[in-house]
Amino acid sequence: MLQRRQEFEVELLPLADVGEIARPLRFWERVLNAGAVRTTLILFALAIVWELYGLWLGIPILFPTLTETLRTFWQDLLNGSLPNRVFTSLRSLFIGYGIGILLAAVLTTFAVSSRLGTDLLRTLTAMFNPLPAIALLPLALIWFGLGIPSMVFVIVHSVLWAVALNTLTGFQGVPETLRMSGRSFGLRGIRYVLLVLVPAAFPAILAGLKIGWAFAWRTLIAAELVFGVSSRSGGLGWYIFEARAQLDTSRVFAGLLAVILIGLFVESVIFQSIERRTIRKWGMQR
């Protein structure tokens, strides 16, 4: 037999007895909540450590100070030597990165359209993804000669498999309800991929683009360190190699600093801007 529950009433506490519910953030708390400020503080701390260690070691040919490196960096920036090398490297990088993304899109579209395409992409990825791109450079030099085409070939190899594998993984993680919704609207082929799969799998796609960019940048610098002269001027890797051959360690560090700054710019400005406008705006990532 069901019993009727007795009614009860909870008295609310006076607001003054509850305590502090919310308080405005202090100035330093608001400052530290900004990711750019935290990143700047970390870089500033690393710069201090670099400068102090260089002063303590006192051997510029082994480890120049940050001050000496920045002086060399600024001089080569003004005389045009460093910008020319950076432009040469970025030109090859953008060509190879773009071709790699395009080929990855084609392979992934074929993979999600048929079981044969999935098996083909998985087999090719298992074969070529573990193969270092720099190991293909001797073959690239035989096939394409000493120049930009050889650099582009190894960059495409380093980008293609990372982007394709992450994209395929993202597509396979799309919920079945979204797939059924797309099919119910009559979406097929490329429209189905662009309107349903790509938005749902974009976090994995963006992760693949980041990995592909990192692989491409590292591969390019490594290739230029070995066979970097192309179109009558070497890239940033060749700039570092020439400085090493002349025992100009501060210029070597200036070249490495340029590599780091470009990487920080791409990661902190370009990719984070894409994240803010897409997956964070869509609520897919905190």
Describe this structure as you would to a colleague.
The protein is an all-alpha fold. The protein has a domain of 195 residues: MetI-like (MetI-like fold, Orthogonal Bundle), CATH 1.10.3720. Helices cover 74% and strands 1% of the residues. It has 13 helices and two strands. A two-stranded antiparallel ribbon has the order 1-2. Helix 4 packs across helix 13 and helix 9 runs antiparallel to helix 10. It is flat and about 95 Å long. The protein starts with 14 loop residues before the first helix and ends in a 9-residue tail after the last helix. The mean pLDDT is 81.
Quick summary of this structure?
By secondary structure, the protein is mainly α. The protein has 13 helices and two strands. It has helices spanning 15-18, 27-32, 35-57, 66-78, 81-113, 115-128, 137-144, 148-172, 176-184, 189-200, 202-227, 236-245, 249-277; strands spanning 229-230, 233-234.
* Fraction of helical residues: over 70%
Please describe the biggest sheet, giving its number of strands, its sense, and whether it closes into a barrel: 2 strands, antiparallel
Question: Architecture of one domain in CATH?
Answer: Orthogonal Bundle
How large is the count of helical segments?
13
Point out poorly predicted stretches.
none
Shape: flat
Order of helices and strands: HHHHHHHHHHHEEHH
List the defining traits of the structure above.
2 strands, 286 residues, 13 helices, MetI-like fold
Outline the secondary-structure elements.
Layout: H1 15-18, H2 27-32, H3 35-57, H4 66-78, H5 81-113, H6 115-128, H7 137-144, H8 148-172, H9 176-184, H10 189-200, H11 202-227, E1 229-230, E2 233-234, H12 236-245, H13 249-277
Antiparallel strand pairs: 1-2
Helix pairs in contact: 4-13, 5-6, 5-8, 5-11, 5-12, 6-8, 7-8, 8-11, 9-10, 11-12, 11-13, 12-13
